[in-house]
Amino acid sequence: MDRRKFVKVSLGSLAAVVAESVAAPLMFRGSEVFAGPGSPPRGRTGIKIDITEVLVEMIDLTQVYMWAFADGKAGPRIPGTYYFVREGDPLDINITNRLDEPHAFAILSRPDGTFVAHTGTIAPRSSSRLQFNAPAAGTYLYLDPLNSPVNRVLGLHGALVVLPAAGNTPYTNPPASVQALFDHLGNSPHFPGSPWDPARTWIWVFNTIDPAFNALAQENQVIDPLDFRARFLPRYFTLSGKSGFFAAHDPQISPHGQVGQPALVRILNAGMATHSSHIHGNHVYLLSENNQVRSNLLWVDTWALPPACRVDWLLPFMRPPDQADGAWPPVQELALVLGDGSRLNPLSYPNHCHTEISQTAAGGNYPSGAIAHFEITGDLNGPFPTAGGSHATARRKEAQRG
Prior knowledge:
With 402 residues, the protein is mainly beta. It has helices spanning 150-153, 176-184, 211-218, 225-231, 244-248, 331-335, 391-401; strands at 7-10, 16-19, 33-35, 45-57, 63-71, 75-77, 80-86, 90-97, 106-110, 114-118, 126-133, 138-143, 157-163, 201-209, 236-239, 256-258, 263-269, 275-279, 284-289, 292-300, 302-305, 310-315, 348-353, 372-379, 382-383. The radius of gyration is 21 Å and the shape is globular.
């Protein structure tokens, strides 16, 4: 590719590709693209991916050169397009390397370098094809494993979600404790409301960016992975490709819903930092680490996530335990409009990483890093009443008014 002719993308323009056997996830309904049969053998889900280069705008408007996976339908994305398939689905993935250096495509099974599938090295201007059946239900990181971790961190990563063929949990034949937890959702006094809806799934992909190394890649210089590890100094931290306000106010990144509408959060770390995500307002159940479903469920408010690792959380959307009976629901606060026309939002809680530097960008600008929100928009009986309808609706109306 002519290095002067880049595709320019805004940070974190998310997209999902959903196999024909899978319902579209909630956060992408209305904007998703579907993996149709196309040219692959009948019954296979066909996916076409290009390995390409882009200029990506950071939160401070700095443009950074990166590598990207470009889905044939959705275009280049960082992280790459999210793919949703069912366990056992036959997959047909065609990958073309459009860059001037060797690359590869693989689906990571475990952080030790065990792969579900791997193309091997793809020479410049060449293609490779993978045909295999979707692995066990879980959350997978796909990536370029060459020159690890350089190619992955410079943008070549994304998420593959494999759903079980049946059942009311995210897993096939889950441990009894996981099955009991999901059976209780919406069917017990301690978890009133609704059972888990697989459409209520959010994906967080962490990454770290040191523009000095991206500049070397732009100049076609070979990056030594040992030097990369030793001298990497993150200047930007992204969550699903976005930072700061843009991540926190993106409904595809920040979980939202009413009390009794539990959500699954699939978290992947493509970057160099060890993250430790923490949500205010609710604790979460740690369900799985690197697709090893836990039999001993932990109820935690934070959990370490090293590079190339993945965890699944159940966010129960409980009534916040520190809310006193006499003050619930907080209708007075929800109805209060301040002098500048803004409305209070007492049930919008922060999500941030306890690796505190990751909340910053460009040398300490806070909160411009990997942050998000968790918002409770209503009680068991429906959205919170306010002067303008539900709180979420009121916020949308205010945004439309500018």
